[in-house]
Amino acid sequence: MQVAKNTVVTLDYSVTDTEGELVDAGQEPLVYLHGGYDDIFPMIEEAMHGKRIGESVVVKMQPDDAFGEYDAALVQLEPRSQFPLELQVGMQFEGVPEGADDEDDEDVLIYRVTEIADDKVVLDGNHPLAGMALVFTCTVTDVRPATAEEISHGHTHDDSCDDED
Q1: Which of 21, 64, 67, 142 is a plausible cystine mate for 127, CB 3.0–4.6 Å?
Q2: Rounded to a whole number, what is the distance in angstroms from the first to the last CA of the chain?
Q3: 50: alpha, beta or left, given left = phi > 0 and alpha = psi -120 to 50?
Q4: Do residues 22 and 34 lie in contact, with contact meaning Cβ atoms separated by under 8 Å?
Q5: What does DSSP assign to residue 59?
Q6: How many CB atoms within 10 Å of residue 159?
Q7: What does the pLDDT average to over 149-162?
Q8: Where are the alpha helices (DSSP H) in 53-159?
């Protein structure tokens, strides 16, 4: 079976930077609904179209095609007193960028703690891979027809899915 619209595709993948340094070993297979459902980057989906089990692609993506450019405006300095005592670099918090409408859920970002100094905490709302050109290597390990339910929900389901869309 070929990768086509409304198929569920399973990929083994890895991601490197342009120098070949491993960024993501892809320890878990990536499963997505093929056909423009935004389950995967469009450039990768386009490269996968028509492939069969065992076939591979290598897709080189610029930041705009992947996780976006790094935005220095998404880095914030906050008072240490606003955070729990058990604070560590790498912890994540939901927040709204300065100047955004607090009522708009689309403005909510995940901020990572990148630095803790005395009475200040540095938060970064950029994706950890923002600003990086990346190379995705993907191999098709399974292709199956999507169920009607998966197509209507616009994403794959597994046995544990209790989606009520």
Answers
A1: 67
A2: 28
A3: left
A4: no
A5: E
A6: 4
A7: 77
A8: 148-153
Task: Give the DSSP H or E segment for 48.
Answer: helix 42-48
DSSP state of 146: P
In whole angstroms, what separates CA 20 from the centre of its chain? Answer: 20
The tens digit of pLDDT for each residue in 48-63 reads 999 999 999 999 999 9
Structure tokens at 101: 């409408």
Q: How far apart are CA 21 and CA 38, in angstroms?
A: 27
Q: How would you write 105-133 as a 3-class SS string?
A: HHHCEEEEEEEEECCEEEEECCCCCCCCC
Statement: the pTM of the whole predicted model exceeds 0.70: yes
Q: Residues 43-77, buried b or exposed e (16+ Cβ, 10 A)?
A: bbbebbeebeeeeebebebebeebbeeeeeebeee
Q: What is the pLDDT of residue 105?
A: 57
Are 14 and 154 spatial neighbours (Cβ–Cβ below 8 Å)? no
Q: What does DSSP say about strands 109-117 and 92-95: parallel, antiparallel, or unpaired?
A: antiparallel
In this structure, what DSSP letter does residue 147 have?
Answer: P
